[in-house]
Amino acid sequence: MKNSGFTWRKRLRSFKYAFHGIWLLVRYEHNAWIHCFAAVCVLLAGFLLNLSAEEWIVIAFAIGLVLAAEAINSSIEALADLVSPEYNEAIKRTKDLAAGAVLILAITAAIVGFIVFIPKLFIFFE
Questions:
Q1: Rounded to two decimals, what is the model's pTM?
Q2: Where is the signal peptide (predicted)?
């Protein structure tokens, strides 16, 4: 692909494509629905428990990283299915590794959530 230089129009168009990617993730990827539901629950709990700015930062990063990982995983799976529609051990390994990365981040986000929310819940229910 030939690079014809920088223009603001091209940069704005790239945002359009990126937002379309987010729309595809939220609209069609079932696992992303689970992550979005969890994110909404965490955001509601954060407002109810009056999180500090620092706590909001770590929560925002945790949510963003999990959703970004899910988007990367979904794109790897879509490309792998296009390249090799029939069973292929290397494709299976690639898809499993990508799914494992999402799981690692989701578990890490849950741990972060426990670290942030458990002390707040103890204070809330005192």
A1: 0.90
A2: none
Q: What is the pLDDT of residue 19?
A: 97
84-104 residues labelled b (16+ CB within 10 A) or e (exposed):
eeeeeeebeebbeebbeebee
Please list the alpha-helical segments (H only) found in the chain: 8-28, 30-48, 53-83, 89-124
Q: CA angle, corner 72, sides to 34 and 102, nearest 5?
A: 50
Alpha-carbon distance of 73 to 79, in angstroms, equals: 10
> How far, CA to CA in Å, does 44 sit from each of 39, 47, 53, 60?
9, 5, 15, 13
Distance CA 62, CA 57 (A): 9
The CA distance from 92 to 90, in Å, is 5
For residues 10 and 108, what is the distance between their CA atoms, to the nearest angstrom?
A: 36
